[in-house]
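EI: anyone free to look at a 426-residue chain?
SC: sure, send it
EI:
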Amino acid sequence: MTTTSANAALHAWVGTPPANWRKDWLKWSVSLSTERPTDDEMERLPYIANEDITSWTGKLLNPDPQPVEADSRRFRRDDVLFNKLRPYLAKVYHAEFDGLSSGELLCLRHSPSVLARFLFYVVSSKAFVDAVNAETFGSKMPRADWEIVGHQPLPLPPLDTQKRIAAFLDEKTAQIDALIAKKQALLERLAEKRQAIITQAVTKGLNPAASMKPSGIDWLGDIPAHWEVRRIKELGTLIGGAGFPHEFQGFTDLEFPFFKVMDLGAVKQNERMLETSNTIDREMAKQLRAAILQARDIVFAKVGAALLLNRFREIGVPSCIDNNMMAFRPNELIDGGFALQALSRIRFADIVNPGAVPSINGKQIGELVLAVPPRPEQRTISEVVRERSDALEQAEQQATQSAELLVEYRSALITAAVTGQIKGLR
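SC: here you go
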């Protein structure tokens, strides 16, 4: 493909604007401001970094940003800040005040031919973001620069049309965002309900009329009188990841799935089984002295931010894990399904080792306790919890799909409006 045809493909999102619209390069109607703040401005003006802006919505996570001592650029009210680092995150902000920003935010200043609010909608549209992202450089931390952003097309209707489009999008996106917020609130309530169901079942049982006794553990409180309090190390074996002796006996596979701690961060809250596309062969497993885990072992993080997510998941096939994870293999005293549900009620955040990186070790985990009913009751509890969770999962899937459709509609509506595809706004 020639350079001309490649550029044409990248800029195809603009299409053919109405006859009374212009189509310029963005840099012809928008300037890049690189003003440096004075010492006084550094002390008093609020500072915004790319992580302070929500993706796609253009809203600030902190509505009251404060001055920060950092390398910065000055922006003015009505400037549009566009994140050049990983632009696919679509962090764009239409400034409502004078302030300072990270150098990773390009400060775009409108001109008499383009309204700031219209400019915001153009550069925050998915079509524009995708076009910029297609031309980024750097594989691990892709970036765009002013040359890339400035050479994107800018559809330019008359100013009164820009005003109508901006007002229309302000109203419609506010309505859509409110609906999305309701879906998110519903998902949070469903997640809380799921957690409440699990907590009640694995600490109090299914019979509300059962006789109770003190557990002697503050967070457990009273438990059914016929249950026992057991330490985790009495209920199974804790197994480390890389750095521990491997055991190939009984395993004939030449390759195994290799779980990394980041896989736990990506897993959804309601998923029971952990999956990964990473693999490790026998020779590498030997070099790492990796433990070979069995199907139905329960894995979890012991180091890093994933530890605080408190996510326990089963593995479906023999696998290896990295040295930031551990596994629990239940013994005959505890059902695997019940163990998975009961472990998820433990709060590692309350007992992590102090330091810059949160961590916990096998000895600490082994001393933690669970409330354990007789084995047949465990199986019943596990099945009932799973049945009730499955019903909630269906509601969660519906709410998630509905929210995703609203996000897609929002994106399509903005692109259609700023490219003149909505007849009433031309």
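EI: The longest strand covers residues 325-330.
SC: 👍
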